[in-house]
Write a structure and sequence with these properties.
Oligomer: heterodimer
Strand content of chain A: 5-15%
CATH topology of the domain at 247-427 in chain B: Vanillyl-alcohol Oxidase, Chain A, domain 3
Number of domains of chain A: 3
Strand content of chain B: 15-25%
Number of strands of chain B: 19
Radius of gyration of chain A: 20 Å
Structural class of chain A: alpha/beta
Radius of gyration of chain B: 22 Å
Shape of chain B: globular
Bound molecules: flavin-adenine dinucleotide, iron/sulfur cluster
Distance between the termini of chain A: 50 Å
Number of helices of chain A: 18
Strand order of the largest sheet of chain B: 15-12-14-13-17-18-16-19
Largest sheet of chain B: 8 strands, antiparallel
CATH superfamily of the domain at 247-427 in chain B: FAD-linked oxidases, C-terminal domain
Structural class of chain B: alpha+beta
Chain lengths: 378, 468
């Protein structure tokens, strides 16, 4: 969360040579197919919405040439899912030190310091400050607890919007006999604030959650939300706890014989969540989980590092709903091209946004929970 | 009405902006150490030819500079404004492959069509465009119109244009070649009479806006072999390169320094490049079955006599060059060494290679550059009369380091003067930094050029300051 110095930022920007390879998927790796990977540039079209253009906007903000928080400036800075597809390609070709999404977060944080923010994002901060969750829900949702071996960090979306995911995860934990707990006073992990440049407000949340976690003394924490996991891995102090995505944890439970799911014997496309795949490098674990429960994965044409974002990340769902929907629609076309109306994924945000565009989305935890029923039935 | 309001009327509000958050993204490219950043006043994104025409007519009436922009990847400051109030005419929305004709072996495309798109479409018919060493995201119209250097230049040459359509600053449309007589027969360069296309070709947006262009496609051969031949000096490979080009045995031939150019050819930074000879000749032999066998045997015998050593590289890495011929994704890796890349690009005879490079290296070392940041690239060109070769003399540097930028400016001035004195055929495209010192040597040519330009663009609105 530390600020990157202006010199470092300007140096990184100078090293972008404007090749725009960050706008398309790995061409030869995908059989010489021209596939767009930057939702922001593809939707808005102006160069400012592609990585190389947005860098120049950041440069002019840093050197003071841009000194007015126009609506367009806020749009350029915030209408980007921070999906990281650009950096995934850039690092292959340029070997320079840019991490595009990190630089865009810097731009957002500079704008936020000057009060150039979207109302929708300010509201999220206010909601979090008032209720401890990003949806401003007053009522608390309670979860069972069976011990302190592992903490299940639920996150705001699986708790208040996509409840099936957390319910399913709890069933999986129960079935495994793991001694688990959910924080009694779990606050938002801070991700929505960090992604929208509101870093100061996120610090309070981090401090609170870190304190709650230390009290328990668990060895492991498991997450169904890759956004929370990323935030813990990158922005929290070292809590001496092993941080795992649900897929990794479930795979361990199965290999230790603590979980014996049956086989669903179905074929599904799998959507790689940006936070899980590109940001944390976790591509194989969810595929292994699916294989363990008899789900054959049908790869989408843009998968793994080349995956097209679900559309909701980086504050886009709240800030630019039409753009979020368009992005999801594009992904849904790709899902439907496989002949399926159903997709597996591993992130509550992806579930929510893809579902809104008309496909059925099952999170890994839900599929594992269904597979457990299959094994119960023998 | 203000210019902004007029532009909005032509292309719709959502396709034009004068907000610095939009214009900033068109203000600078990687040549910024030579071409200072400048925002255009407006960026306009027309979606049809009619809208392009109307924008040009408006600009002409208002005497406002217009800069055509197709993909903006030219790395030479060619789309960076030189005057206040400029309109950036971003034509990337015109991105249709109008026709891909396997029978004629041609593609007719709009300026927003990238090489990647064109490769994808033509590959289905066993065809490919001539491909530059540039990222596959560049506009195939602009690159061909500006006449590029292609991976297959020794076989296919530099000029692949058959005909095109251009909208002039007064809003009139001009067709070249056979499309002048019949629009749906755009397949021949030399239409009804005197040829006008060559006058326009190479102009960096200074004559008008090309809206459609028909270019040659080439067949993809099944039989293909790649050779990397290592050498420790600059003289020995000349004979090998001369022979394989004179006898038209290779479709691709590049002579480069190992450390900088082999990584993009092999597609990885992770190899012990320092253990290899200092220079390498990379060649591709390709043809139909038996012709290929015969060609390959001759090439092998020439390599054996050349004093060079065929490099023993892992096959999967060596084969990456084939990918580059169908769309370069790894050639931009050269920027990875220091972050930025300087090169002076020009044409000259092959036999001057050692002198060009040695002079350059000597100067660069004297000025204080590190030997490991100095590099070169030579690419022979069909037909080989006059030993025509494209050259780059290169420095890898960090543009955020002021000292190296100053050193680079000094080196650049010396290099251009030296090259003009040693003798070159011409510069690779007109661009800032090489044109200025050339003017005094070309006599009344500039004057005549300006007269011609004035006929077409009397108000001087088309990308001013980019040629003479
Ligand atoms: C790493 C790297 C390596 C490269 N290597 C090569 C190489 O080996 N061979 C090679 O040929 N090139 C090479 N290039 C250069 C690059 O490919 C071309 O210069 C490029 O095609 C031109 O840029 P563009 O297509 O993006 O056009 P733009 O940048 O959009 O425009 C370039 C010029 O053309 C004008 N223009 C744009 N559109 C139109 C139009 N519709 N009508 C009229 N004028 C127009 C512009 O005003 C400008 O002056 C390389 C580039 C990079 C980044
Ligand atoms: S791939 Fe990297 S260097 Fe190329 S334009 Fe994108 S950000 Fe810049
Ligand atoms: S982070 Fe994603 S949406 Fe944003 S510029 Fe990069 S590829 Fe585009």
């Amino acid at each position: 969360m530390e600020k990157i110095s202006e010199d470092v930022l300007l140096r990184a920007i100078s090293h972008c040579f404007k090749c725009k390879l960050c706008a398309i998927a790995d061409f030869h790796g995908m059989g010489e197919e021209w596939l767009a990977i930057c939702p922001s540039g593809s939707y808005y079209g102006f160069n400012s919405f592609y990585s190389p253009g947005r860098f120049e906007v950041l440069r002019e903000v840093l050197n003071g040439e841009i000194d007015c928080g126009t609506e367009m400036l806020v749009k350029v800075a915030f209408a980007c899912q921070l999906c990281g597809a650009c950096y995934e390609r850039c690092k292959e070709v340029s070997k320079v030190e840019l991490d595009n999404a990190e630089l865009f977060e810097e731009l957002r944080s500079i704008l936020a310091e000057r009060g150039w923010l979207l109302d929708a994002h300010v509201r999220i901060r206010e909601d979090v400050e008032r209720t401890g969750n990003a949806y401003g829900e007053d009522e608390r949702v309670e979860y069972p607890s069976s011990g302190d071996e592992v903490i299940y960090f639920v996150g705001c979306t699986a708790r208040y919007r996509e409840r099936e995911i957390s319910d399913a995860m709890v069933r999986v934990l129960d079935a495994s006999g793991a001694r688990y707990t959910v924080l009694g006073d779990e606050w938002c992990c801070g991700s929505p604030l960090l992604r929208t440049g509101q870093r100061d407000a996120a610090s309070r949340l981090i401090e609170h959650n870190a304190g709650e976690i230390s009290k328990i003394g668990a060895e492991k924490m498991v997450f169904t939300c890759p956004g929370c996991l990323k935030t813990f891995k990158e922005s929290y102090p070292d809590l001496g706890v092993e941080l795992l995505h649900a897929s990794e944890y479930i795979n361990d439970l199965v290999s230790e014989g603590r979980l014996q799911p049956g086989k669903l014997e179905i074929t599904l496309p799998y959507h790689d969540p940006c936070h899980l795949g590109r940001h944390l490098g976790i591509y194989d674990a969810p595929r292994e989980t699916l294989e363990l429960i008899g789900v054959r994965v049908m790869e989408l044409s843009r998968n793994r590092g080349n995956a097209w974002c679900c559309g909701s990340g980086g504050g886009v769902k709240s800030g630019f709903p039409e753009f979020a929907t368009w992005t999801a629609d594009e992904r849904v076309k790709e899902i439907r091209a496989t002949g399926s109306d159903v997709v597996a994924s591993a992130c509550p945000f992806c579930k929510r946004n893809l579902k809104d565009s008309g496909v059925r989305v099952f999170d890994l935890a839900e599929l594992v929970s269904q597979a457990l029923l299959r094994s119960d039935r023998g | 009405m203000t210019i902004l309001e007029e532009l909005e009327r032509i292309v719709g509000r959502e396709n034009v902006s004068g907000d610095p958050a939009i214009t900033a993204a068109y203000s600078r490219d990687q040549h910024w150490t030579f071409v200072p950043p400048k925002n255009p006043a407006f960026v306009v994104r027309p979606g049809t030819k009619e809208e392009i025409r109307d924008v040009l007519m408006l600009a002409n009436r208002e005497k406002t500079p217009v800069i055509p922009w197709s993909t903006g990847i030219n790395i030479r400051g060619m789309t960076i404004p030189t005057q206040d109030g400029s309109i950036m005419l971003d034509v990337s929305r015109l991105n249709r492959i109008v026709e891909l004709n396997p029978e004629m072996m041609t593609a007719t495309i709009q300026p927003g069509v990238t090489f990647g798109m064109l490769v994808e479409a033509s590959k289905k018919h066993g065809l490919r465009p001539a491909f530059p060493d540039a990222p596959l995201t560049v506009s195939a119209v602009t690159n061909n119109y500006l006449r590029g250097i292609y991976q297959t230049s020794p076989r296919d040459g530099l000029d692949h244009i058959l005909s095109f359509e251009i909208i002039l600053p007064n809003g009139e449309t001009l067709q070249t070649g056979s499309r002048l007589l019949k629009r749906d027969l755009p397949y021949f360069r030399y239409g009804p009479g005197p040829e006008i296309a060559s006058l326009f070709i190479g102009g960096p947006g200074t004559w008008g806006v090309v809206t459609e262009l028909t270019l040659k496609l080439y067949r993809i051969f099944e039989h293909q072999k790649i050779y990397y031949v290592g050498f420790d000096d600059l003289e020995k490979p000349i004979d090998l390169i001369d022979r394989v080009n004179r006898e038209e045995l290779v479709s691709s031939c590049r002579f480069v320094d190992t450390i900088h150019w082999l990584p993009p050819y092999l597609g990885t930074f992770d190899y012990e490049y320092e253990t290899l000879p200092e220079f390498v000749v990379a060649m591709v032999v390709e043809n139909q079955d038996r012709i290929f066998q015969a060609q390959d045997q001759i090439v092998q015998s020439y390599i054996a006599k050349s004093g060079g050593k065929i490099l023993d590289l892992p096959q999967d890495l060596a084969d990456n060059l084939k990918c580059e011929m169908l769309g370069a994704e790894t050639s931009p890796m050269i920027f990875g060494f220091k972050g930025n890349f300087y090169c002076v690009g020009y044409y000259g005879p092959l036999n001057l290679l050692p002198k060009y490079y040695q002079d350059f290296k000597e100067n660069a070392l004297k000025i204080g550059f590190d030997a490991k940041d100095i590099s070169f690239y030579a690419n022979t060109i069909a037909r080989f009369h006059g030993q025509s070769t494209y050259y780059e003399l290169e420095i890898y540097f960090d543009s955020s380091d002021r000292k190296s930028v100053e050193m680079l400016r000094t080196l650049h001035a010396r290099t251009v003067t030296n090259l003009l004195e040693t003798g070159i055929y011409g510069w690779f495209r007109p661009y800032a930094g090489v044109i200025e010192p050339t003017l005094e040597r070309i006599g009344n040519f500039t004057e005549y050029w300006k007269k011609l330009q004035n006929l077409i663009d009397p108000n001087g609105i088309m990308n001013p300051g980019k040629v003479f």
